Amino acid sequence: MTRIIVKDLAAGYDRKAVLHRLNFVLNEGELVGLIGDNGAGKTTLMKVLTGILPPIDGEVSKKNPGDKWGLVPEIPQLYYEMTLREHLDFVAMCHQMPQDVYEQRREALLEQFVMTDQLDKFPGTYSKGMRQKAMLICALLYQPQILFIDEPFVGLDPKGIQALLQVMETEKRRGATIFMSTHILDTAEKVCDRFLLLSRGKLVGSGSMESLRQKFGISEASLMELYIRAVEVEHS
Ligand SMILES: Nc1ncnc2c1ncn2[C@@H]1O[C@H](COP(=O)(O)OP(=O)(O)OP(=O)(O)O)[C@@H](O)[C@H]1O
């Protein structure tokens, strides 16, 4: 089942487009990797899909407007006057989670991300990776149907990366749609079902590893090779 349909989308800043006529869909239960060079427009696209930035043209439609979504931004945004417990209490309250479900899920996520001992501390005392984990726990707590994650791997330690990959797999099996931007292509290649390849605000390729290999005529190519090829073809 399709969750999000993006049609002829243009978006940018001060009416100057940095994303140009994008067309794609995001389906239920799939993990889609957004790959693009610096400044390609990945964060901008995340902002448009989550309604933070209005499109200049085209549209983003959600098949089920009632779907809950979550965003983990590239730069963690936490309240420095609130402990992690207070953040999580607040998220659970906003999503009307039953207390027992909330506590059970909170404890499981804290354990998975090795953050149990940080629960009553303030994010100002956290390391960069801990802040990222706190954001992830906040977004994963209420099990959104659509999860947007902007560059999740940079800053996470190996156990954090493993925990995130495990949770993403579990959430996908539950039917969640995950849209993730990343520069860590060897990990993306292993875990994503499909990819959107973005260069200078344009989609230069999309599909599974297999379909991209077929499209660009390079069997056995890695995601990095496919991305480089897609950009060459587009800008040649
Ligand atoms: N607030 C803003 N105002 C004006 N231009 C912006 C703003 N934010 C981003 N841009 C521009 O939009 C373009 C896309 O930026 P964006 O942050 O979406 O890229 P990105 O693909 O996420 O890059 P990176 O991989 O470096 O994080 C860039 O040219 C950037 O300079």
Give a description of the structure.
By secondary structure, this protein is of the alpha/beta class. It is 39% helix and 26% strand. The protein is built from 8 helices and 9 strands. It has helices at 42-49, 84-94, 99-112, 128-141, 158-173, 185-191, 209-216, 223-235; strands at residues 2-13, 16-27, 31-36, 57-62, 69-72, 146-150, 177-181, 194-199, 202-207. The protein has a 6-stranded mixed beta sheet, with helices on both faces. It has a 3-stranded antiparallel beta sheet with strand order 2-1-4, covered by helices on one side. A hairpin with a 2-residue loop joins β8 (194-199) and β9 (202-207). The protein is globular and about 55 Å long. The structure holds adenosine-5'-triphosphate. Residues 13, 18, 36, 38-44 line the site of adenosine-5'-triphosphate.
Q: Quick one: CATH superfamily?
A: P-loop containing nucleotide triphosphate hydrolases
Relative helix content = 25-40%
- Name of the CATH first level: Alpha Beta
Backbone shape:
globular
Distance between the termini: 36 Å
Structural class: alpha/beta
Main sheet: strands, sense, barrel: 6 strands, mixed
Mean pLDDT: 95
- The CATH architecture is 3-Layer(aba) Sandwich
Q: Provide the succession of SSEs.
A: EEEHEEHHHEHEHEEHH
Rg (C-alpha, Å): 18 Å
Strand order of the largest sheet: 5-6-7-3-8-9
Could you tell me the CATH topology label.
Rossmann fold
Keywords: ATP-binding, Nucleotide-binding, Transport
Domain ABC transporter: 4-225
Protein name: ABC transporter ATP-binding protein
GO molecular function, one term: ATP binding
